[in-house]
Every structure is written in structure tokens, then in C-alpha cells.
Write a structure and sequence with these properties.
Blueprint lengths: L1 H5 L5 H20 L3 H12 L2 H12 L6 H31 L4 H36 L6 H4 L5
């Protein structure tokens, strides 16, 4: 949390994520509730971390904009999306529907909101990366009329 505040790149979403996580874990310990839910939440939130770190490492060692980096980006995006947008809402539902203190319920919702925000950002990143990969191999990008077409 302190690194979020005093590091080079302060971001509100990252600080909010860490604050919600710390308060949620502390609330679970204080109320002596939701141990299994907290372990499941840690699994769901951290399962994509190795792929996130692989993306950054590949960029640091000079593999930016390569097929290997694209594969790491796509693996991260898929694993994050499935874990946080399928497993996350299910766990949030279980936490909200159980007899838990309001603080724990609020932290579950807060973590899911952060996950939804990051999911939005990851979808934008995946679209950008796939568009860049299409240009690299010489494929035309989808026509704007197809992108903005509305279904009747």
C-alpha cells in the first residue's frame, strides 16, 4: 500500500485495490469470518499474476511487440477475464448472500468493482494488441462501418 502512494506511478485504482484488500483481510480476521472466501478470493485475484509479471519481464528484456509478448498478453487477458469475471462475481454473490458483516460485504463488492474496471482496461489492451498484430502481418483492420453497425 505504501509503495502505491510513494512509488513512481501512483494510480488511484491500484491504491483502491490494495486498500480494499487490506481492509477485507483485516475485517475477516477481526470478525473471524469468511476464511474460505478469502482464500478463494486470493486464488481468483492472484492466478493471473504470473502472466502479468511475465508480460512485464518480456518487455524489460527486449521482447516488446514480439509474438512471445503477444502470447503472454493474451494468456494474461484470458486468465484474468475468466477468473475475475466468472469466478469473482460468483464468489461475490456467495459472500453477499451469506450472513456476513456489512464491512466484509462492502469489501467484496469493492474488489469486484476494481476487477470490472481492470477488465475494461484489459479488453482495450487486447483489442489494441490484436490490431497491432494484424497490421504487422499485413491484414487490413476491420472496416469502421462494421465496428459501428447496430443490430436492429
Amino acid at each position: 500500500m505504501i509503495c502505491c502512494l510513494f512509488g513512481d506511478g501512483f494510480s488511484f485504482d491500484n491504491t483502491f485495490h490494495h486498500l480494499v484488500s487490506i481492509i477485507g483481510i483485516a475485517a475477516g480476521l477481526a470478525f473471524e469470518k469468511c476464511g474460505s472466501e478469502q482464500v478463494a478470493a486470493l486464488l481468483i485475484t492472484e492466478i493471473s499474476s504470473p502472466f502479468l509479471h511475465a508480460r512485464e519481464l518480456l518487455k524489460e528484456v527486449g521482447y516488446r511487440d514480439t509474438d512471445l509478448n503477444l502470447a503472454a498478453d493474451m494468456a494474461f487477458g484470458v486468465i484474468f477475464s475468466v477468473a475475475r469475471m466468472v469466478g469473482g462475481p460468483y464468489l461475490t454473490f456467495l459472500t453477499l448472500s451469506a450472513y456476513n458483516p456489512m464491512l466484509i460485504k462492502a469489501m467484496a463488492v469493492g474488489l469486484q468493482l476494481v476487477s470490472a474496471f481492470w477488465f475494461y482496461k484489459i479488453v482495450k489492451m487486447v483489442k489494441y494488441k490484436l490490431g497491432k498484430a494484424r497490421e504487422k502481418v499485413g491484414l487490413p483492420s476491420p472496416s469502421p462501418s462494421l465496428q459501428t453497425a447496430k443490430l436492429d
